[in-house]
C-alpha cells in the first residue's frame, strides 16, 4: 500500500522570472515547462476592465490622461487595481481615478530618476574603463621604451655583479 502511494505523488515546481529575455534558451524551450504565463504591465484596455469591475464606470473625464500615463508608465495591474479600490465609503470614482493619476505620475517620475541614475553610473563606468585603458597603454609604452633601453645598453659584467650583490 505504501509503495502504491509513492507512485501517485507528483512533484510540481513553479518558477518565476521577471526578465524572460535574460534566461538561457535551454531553460525555457519546449518540454521544460508546462505553462508560460506572461504577467505584463497594465495598459489602457486592462485599465478599462479594472475600472469597470472596481468602480462600475465605462468612461470618465480622466480617461484621456490615464490612457497617456498607463502607456508611458510600467505599473502592474495589481497596483492599478489597488489605486482604484475605494478606501472608504466616501470615496467615489473621481477620487479613485485621481489617486491612480497621482500614483502613475509618481511612478513615472521614479522611473525617470532611476534612468538618469543608470545613465550617470554608466558614464562613470565608461570613464573609469577609459582611464584604465589609457593607463595600461601608457604603462605598455613605458615598458616597451624601457625594454629598448636595456636592449641598447646591456649591463656590463661589473655592473651586473654589483646589482646582484645589493
Report a brief summary of the structure.
With 166 residues, this protein is mainly alpha-helical. Helix content is 66%, strand content 0%.
**Mean pLDDT figure:** 82
Assembly type of the shown chains? single chain
Helical fraction: 55-70%
- Characterize the largest beta sheet: strand count, sense, and whether it forms a barrel: none
Number of domains: 1
Count of extended strands: 0
Molecular shape: elongated
Distinct helical segment count: 7
Low-confidence stretches: none
Q: What is the succession of H and E elements?
A: HHHHHHH
Q: Structural class given helices, strands, pairing?
A: mainly alpha
What is the C-alpha radius of gyration, as a whole number of Å? 32 Å
Percent of residues in beta strands: under 5%
Termini separation (Å)? 86 Å
Summary keywords:
P-loop containing nucleoside triphosphate hydrolase, elongated, 0% strand, mainly alpha, single chain, hydrolase activity, hydrolase, 166 residues, At3g28540-like_C, Mitochondrial_chaperone_BCS1
